[in-house]
Amino acid sequence: METSSNQYNPNAAADPNSGIFGLPHSFKDSKIVYLPVPWEATTSYGAGTSHGPEAIINASAQIDVFDLDVKNPYLAGMHALPISPEIFELNKRSKILAQTIIEAFGEIEDSAELKKNLALVNSHSKTVNTFVQNEISQIFKNNKIPALIGGDHSTPFGAFKAAAEQYKEFGILHFDAHSDTRKAYLGFEHSHASIMYNASTQIPEIKKIIQVGIRDFCEEEFEFTSSQKQRFNVFYDQHLNQRKMSGEPFTKIAEDIIKDLPANVWVSFDIDGLDPRFCPHTGTPVPGGLDYPEAIQILRSLANSGRKIIGFDVVEVAPIIDQDGSPIEINQANDEWDSNVGMRLIYKISAFALASQKLCEWNLKPNNT
Ligand SMILES: [Mn+2]
User: pTM above 0.90?
Assistant: First the structure.
């Protein structure tokens, strides 16, 4: 049975035919529109994020839409676009090609076949970038807030390009265990490990990238971000922990993290920025990381700071994957943990984005001091 917006009951269990978060909204009815991007072609370690969007959307029906920070965020309307079967298929084909290069550790000079495979993967990545840019542009042009659901961390590149069409200047608040500033990792021009290198070198509208939770990076990446203090501001996980252990209140740390961001901010959230207990199946887990409530506090400070959250992505969420790459019973509660965390994070950032754009009122205005 179709449920109309008028009949929607936020206190009832989700209708099985409903959309993301159990909501009945169409594209037209919605202020937030989610673009699922099932793409992880160049993932070098671990796999499964191409199943992330499906798992997140399935898990999302479990949420209670009431929010203590933001008043009835669901009333603004939330709608997920369908998962593109073309991108899903392109991912499968590209993964097989990319695997040959990963197995050769990127040493492809002596092999015409591997060179051809690399060229194909790079070309398919550009296809995905163009797809994402077009879709996110459409969401912006319809006066809605775009949110991308990955997929790996290469997927938001086209979204950043679309944001750059809309905003002459914006910043990125980047949560991650990794710096993601490698230059063409293994020859892949658009790898998950290069997203912030590509963003900073190819999109001049991005004025500032604030990185949080970083704890796994190479010397070249350290030099790259350290040499661009105007552009990059890195809050290494180790330093955040030292500040916490010295007794500095996290509310103050959160204010410090967001203070150099410009007026317009895209949030790029790699789930592995969190402690791995919140994302045990993500591609490249690293010990340490932010606690979930700490990440939320940083986002709360951002939303309450007068800055505008213009859009966001949540990437690298992976359900449990079988040996052959197919997801295992992703609808079963015991396998759903990664997607459960992912969908709750997506709902919370959605709520903060709406509050930051004054499309929803605060329920309890945060006191950040
Ligand atoms: Mn990342």
Answer: yes
